[in-house]
Design goal:
It is a single chain. With 315 residues, the chain is of the alpha/beta class. It has a domain of 214 residues: TIM Barrel, CATH 3.20.20. It is built from 13 helices and 11 strands. An 8-stranded parallel β-barrel has the order 2-3-4-7-8-9-10-11, surrounded by 6 helices. It has a two-stranded antiparallel sheet with strand order 5-6. Helix 8 packs parallel to helix 9 and helix 10 runs antiparallel to helix 13. The longest helix is centred in the middle third of the chain and has 18 residues. The radius of gyration is 21 Å and the shape is globular. The relative contact order is 0.14. The structure holds ribose-5-phosphate. Ribose-5-phosphate binds next to helix 11.
Length: 315
């Protein structure tokens, strides 16, 4: 039954207090629609050490879309699902989402939305591979598209991105532009500034790119939206943690690492060490120390114990 007293006698209007306004903390994203901001806030989480900023540790496992069962991804159910509690977001394909990723894990999905050629062909010849309606059906937090600046099919890949941005604007789904570097292109600051800026200018809501030295700070500074560092080829764990540390210190809003996590001898320890660098500002040597101190039961590329229940974060 309706309570009429409540309607007439409420007193907590605080009429003299101005409305609370909270600026959206991600660079360049302050004027995005609420749905976009809400999805981005699922991928990036508030940084407890630096109030007012947000960071992410994305786990990239989308390699199969052009190169099949990559080392470490032969059995995503065994090698990746146990890592989900430590990832802020999972970058993967819709096939892997529907077949293998437990919906109950609640991990935000950054959905690979471009594809076409395999490693046997010209990689830049990609097309859009997912409709935005299906991304919405999957409850994707964002979609990801490869952009090949300087590549053979440069214009086509840029067009893939701009079409996804148009669709993303309609549905409130952010687009992550992934700057792809072909064999013939140098990953120096000059090239990465060009590639990342083109993606942002043409509407990408956040951009993934490689770390470079020197000059990563200029790449991050010139990109008006959040920049996420790509992992790249497997490095020794200490080197990968050092690279992530420098990227964050020089302006990256997070990392999106694949092989450097799932090809590690101890993937769960590695993703936690990366998390310490990104979210707790741990020095790389301390994070590496933490990595080395992983309990013995977690050693080994292959899990020897059944996957943890979806959503539970083992201690
Ligand atoms: C790279 O271009 C794709 O997005 C990947 O398949 C993946 O995200 C790369 O991750 P990583 O280089 O860290 O293994």
């Amino acid at each position: 039954m309706a309570d009429e007293e409540d309607l007439t006698n409420g007193a907590r209007f605080a009429a003299s207090v101005p409305p609370r306004q909270e600026p959206f903390p991600l660079k360049g994203c302050g004027s995005l629609d609420w749905g976009m901001q809400s999805r981005l806030a699922r991928v990036f989480r508030p940084d407890t050490r630096r109030p007012g900023s947000m960071r992410t540790v994305m786990l990239a496992i989308d390699h199969g879309y052009f190169q099949g069962p990559t080392t470490g991804l032969e059995r995503v159910d065994l090698s990746i699902v146990p890592l989900l509690p430590y990832a802020d977001a999972l970058m993967t394909t819709r096939g892997m989402v529907r077949s293998t990723v437990p919906a109950a894990s609640r991990v935000p999905i950054v959905l690979r939305a471009s594809g076409g050629p395999s490693i046997l062909r010209e990689l830049s010849d990609e097309r859009i591979a997912v409709g935005m309606e299906d991304a919405a059906r999957i409850n994707a937090a964002a979609v990801a598209v490869q952009v090949f600046v300087g590549g053979e099919f440069e214009t086509q890949s840029v067009r893939n991105m701009t079409r996804l941005v148009d669709a993303g604007q309609r549905y409130g789904i952010p687009v992550l532009a992934v700057t792809a570097v072909g064999k013939e292109l140098t990953r120096d600051a000059r090239y990465l500034r060009l590639a990342t800026r083109i993606c942002a200018e043409l509407g990408a809501h956040f951009v993934k790119t490689y770390y470079c030295e020197p000059g990563f700070d200029t790449v991050a500074a010139a990109c008006p939206v959040p920049l996420v560092m790509a992992g790249g080829k497997k490095l020794p764990e200490a080197d990968a943690l050092t690279m992530a540390y420098h990227a964050i210190e020089n302006g990256a809003a997070g990392v999106d690492m694949g092989r450097n996590i799932f090809q590690s001898d101890t993937p769960a320890a590695m993703i936690r060490a990366v998390g310490a660098v990104v979210h707790e500002s741990a020095k790389p040597e301390d994070a590496y120390e933490q990595y080395l101190k992983t309990p013995e039961k977690e050693q080994g590329l292959w899990p020897t114990h059944p996957p943890a229940a979806a959503g539970s974060r083992p201690m």
